[in-house]
Design brief:
Rossmann fold, two-stranded antiparallel sheet, alpha/beta
């Protein structure tokens, strides 16, 4: 396996290695996945302005930092010691702090206006119990934002799941909605899709771009420029055609009775 490490970190900040367990900024070949996750964080940040937010399984910390640009307070929580040390050294805001803890039991009841839990529920042993714990952290009227990949677009065609060794369970739209709806009374399910230049690239692939660029010896020159140029604006959240989505985002509220 090739080893990729974050580039150009601030002085005193230990760079993280890309292992496949979490996405990272500052790794050029990883930019597609980083921007794909960042797009969802940006969408959520606009909806948590002024609130108290906990970002569960926050990883490297970039998402918590983005949320803190809008929220009154953000607590980023991750169990990994390397990610924790990196995040607290790199992202410095008066309204942002990082804690080491397990998503299954961290936090006090009714403490937050929003809980953010992105691209991690596929890693946990008991997802329903985790959702119940996160519901307990919400103040009345609060929201949980939870995302996961769509197995239909993540896995190879016809395969029941992807080859990601970190994933314990991967979901279709209906399965993910049922899981969230078993804990919350209100669930809005959105899908993340390619937009702008990624949508154009998608159309080019359908027209045979993958067969053309190797023959023209353009593969590396093209993708060395194309991949780093991807931004969060090249993704969009929608509520239609969810079976074709890249990822799902469930916006959950209310107590299931």
């Amino acid at each position: 396996m090739n080893v990729y490490v974050q580039q150009s970190q601030p002085a005193g900040v230990p760079p993280l290695e890309l292992t496949g367990e979490r996405t990272l900024p500052d790794v050029p070949v990883e930019n597609y996945w980083f921007r794909r996750h960042l797009a969802v964080y940006e969408w959520i940040a606009a909806r948590v302005a002024g609130g108290r937010v906990i970002d569960m399984a926050c990883g490297e910390g970039y998402g918590s930092d983005l949320l803190a640009s809008q929220a009154a307070l953000v607590v980023g929580v991750d169990a990994n010691p390397d990610a924790y040390e990196h995040a607290r050294a790199r992202y410095l805001r008066d309204n942002l702090r990082f804690e080491r803890g397990m998503v299954e039991n961290y936090g006090k009841p009714a403490s937050f206006d929003a809980v953010v839990f992105l691209q991690t529920i596929e890693h946990v042993i008991d997802p329903r119990a985790v959702l119940e714990h996160m519901r307990s952290l919400l103040k009345p009227g609060g929201f949980l934002y939870v995302s996961t990949p769509n197995v239909l677009t993540l896995a190879p065609a016809g395969a029941p799941r992807s080859g990601n060794p970190w994933h314990l369970r991967e979901y279709r739209a209906a399965e993910f909605r049922v899981l969230a709806g078993s804990v919350f009374s209100s669930v809005e399910l959105l899908g993340l899709f390619h937009a702008r230049k990624l949508r154009m690239h998608e159309l080019a692939l359908r027209l045979g771009w993958d067969a053309l660029h190797p023959r023209l010896r353009l593969t590396r020159p093209f993708y060395d420029r194309f991949t780093p140029a991807i931004t969060a604006r090249d993704f969009a959240l929608r509520s239609d055609r969810l079976d074709r989505a890249l990822d799902f985002l469930a916006v959950c509220s209310g107590v299931k009775r």
